Amino acid sequence: MRSAPLSEKMPVPEGTKAEIVGGNVFMSPRRQHHWEIISGIFEQLRDKYPRKRLASDLRIDIPGHLNGSACDLAAMADRSVKDSKFPRD
Fold this sequence. Notes:
The protein is of the alpha+beta class.
């Protein structure tokens, strides 16, 4: 899908990335601020999840139509299993 910058179309807070994808508006913080948010969440998750059950920037196919996602951070359940799409270690 084609994304379009919104800077000319609506006010976007400084340091924020905004785009339209599939008719939906997505806004996210840029660079260092984004990393600070992700690393803070990762540190909290490490208290509960072992490192091998956490992933970043990895495509995850969630059940349902068009539910593939490459999220910034994911925590896998104990029962989760790698399938043939998962890259080799």
